[in-house]
Design goal:
The chain has 65 residues and is mainly alpha-helical. The chain has one domain. Helix content is 85%, strand content 0%. The two termini are 19 Å apart. Keywords: Membrane, Transmembrane, Transmembrane helix.
Length: 65
Amino acid sequence: MKKNLFKIFILSSIFTTLGFIMDGDPKEPSMLMRFVEFFAMIGTIFLLFSLVYFITTFTFKKIVG
C-alpha cells in the first residue's frame, strides 16, 4: 500500500509541476503564496488520483474475487 501511495504522490507531483510550468498567468509576487498554491495543488491531485485508484481496485476485487 505504501508503494502505491508513493507512486500516486510522484505522479501528482509530476502533473503539478508540469501544470505550473505551462501556466501562463502572471505569478504572485509572494513566494509563500506560490508554495502554498503548489502544495495545495499536489494535495488535491493526490487526493483525486488516490480516490480513483482505490475505488477502482476495490470494485475490481469485489467483481472478480
